[in-house]
Amino acid sequence: MNAPQIALSAVLRWLSFAFVLLLILFLFIPVIIIVILSFSNATVLQFPPEQFGLRQYVAFAQSQYWTSSVIKSLSIAFPTALVATLVGMPAVFAFNRTRLPFREGLELAGLTPFLLPGVAYAVALYAMYAQFHIVGTTVGLILADSVIALPFVVVIVGAGIKRVPQDLELVAMSLGASRARALIGITFRLTLPAIGAAFVLAFLAAFDEATFVNFVGGPDLVTLPKAIFDSLRLGVDPLITGIATILMVITGMAMTAAVWLRRT
Amino acid sequence: MAMARANTASLARPTAGQLLPISLPWRRNRRNWSPQPSAWVGLLLATPFLLMLVFYVIYPFVRLVQTAVGDPGGWGNIGLFFSNSANVLVVQITFRDAAIVTAIDVVAGGLMAWALKSTRNRFMRFALLSAIFVPFWMGSVVKIYAFTALLGRAGVINGFLLNAHIIQAPLHLLYTQPAVVAGMVYQMLPLAVLPMYVAFSSIDTDLIIAAEGLGASRARAILDVVLPLAVPGIFATLVINFVLALGFYLTPVLLGGLTSPFTATLIQQDLFTYSDFPDASIGGLMLLLGGIASVTLGYFLVGKDRLRRAISA
């Protein structure tokens, strides 16, 4: 290497280092803005805030509209996660532990809801729901959200079960266990942490879902993301920063828990 | 006696299942014991999943096509859709901006993934990891809210620039195409870093040292030795990011404003303002076809395993 080449390498390295630092900043700025604004006492957007306080949190807690939207979100996300787990988990067992034909292709098919462009999917579901007149029903929204949560379950439970050696089942069966007993007592039990992680992530995905609810939720199903969406179309209400900060803390803890569950 | 002999004979001969690489369940010798439950048990376990695929993946898209080419004009609906030059422009802009977002994300995400792989600095590693994961904690709508707060007329950027006397009047930042692109880049950047990090982590960094030892510059070593190894992973990320970018709904509608030239906005207006189902369905169909085309391309170029690994990350 000659001197200009070394200089060029050094320049390139510093440039990419600076660029990466900028990207880190870019990823953090919206988070920081939301948290700072949530502790401002202003009723309109104002940066930097003139007066700090807990107004956004108090206003949120006192607003029936916002609190009921949170309850609505919870009452949809919980059954959604349950349905997605109960549909996805047995299927993953079937794909990895039985002689079902076309297993691999079916497991890949379980990822399609993630790979289809979201808007196209929402319109397609809306067309179907309109045909059967189930737009705006809670059950309809839960089922639609479960399809979005299904790939999380397929991927996470699938990764979990692939880490359990099948030999353990053979050992159990050689010691007299039936196939079912070996599958449930060994493989299922060892996959439980992954199933828990899948449930948590499916719940978070459903809680955060904001596209489908706009299409198949109708005007009356107001979940929290939908309420924020509606309010954003009218303007920027600083109250949202309060609930956003609370959610960030809860989501962060839940995701950390899910990651921890996947590791054990 | 004859039957018993036949039985032993069939046991001695290799069965079709052992000869062929694929073994169909109904061809298998039933007397062969297998530790795995039968195909029927598997079918039973997978039934809810299969039903969901049929009713919530296959049928809706059949319905989408039916609506698109149904009343009022049949297949003529599509001709009508594209005879409107505004619609053509909107579809073009949607695909172009999805490509721009994907390109930015893959370059930026690739750099971040490489930095994450190669850094020895613990603080840098922590900063990178938290920059990738903390945005996941924010809800998708909250991210858009943050961009509205940043870019709005009375937003953070305008406030900062006005206070610093760099500009005299607030800039028009929100409800523009760059605003939509910035919002989408932000939301997908972490999703670009993770699969590329997984792809990069299998590359041996000693190769760079080896190449340098043979006289290559660092840039040359990265371009000629490391990049070719990373290309499949990068390509899988590219495909997945492009499909996701095509599907964005909230960002174009909220950051682009009511009249932004994005298919998502067009669909939203067709459905909820004009009740024009066929037009909305055709818009959706265009995005769907774009998505299927890019996934198919990815499938043939990098294979399903890499695509799956990119999704799983």
Detailed description of the structure:
With 264 residues, chain A is mainly α. Chain A has a single domain (63-263), classed as MetI-like fold. Helix content of chain A is 79%, strand content 0%. Chain A contains twelve helices and no strands. In chain A, helix 3 runs antiparallel to helix 4. Chain A is globular, with a radius of gyration of 24 Å. The mean pLDDT of chain A is 89. Chain B is mainly alpha-helical. Chain B has one domain (73-312): MetI-like fold (Orthogonal Bundle). In chain B, 75% of the residues lie in helices and 0% in strands. Chain B has helices at 2-12, 16-19, 39-68, 76-83, 85-118, 122-137, 140-151, 156-163, 177-200, 206-213, 218-246, 250-256, 263-272, 277-302, 304-312. In chain B, helix 5 crosses helix 11 (218-246) and helix 7 (140-151) runs parallel beside helix 12 (250-256). Chains A and B meet through helix 1, helix 3, helix 4, helix 5 and helix 6 of A and helix 3, helix 5, helix 6, helix 7 and helix 8 of B.
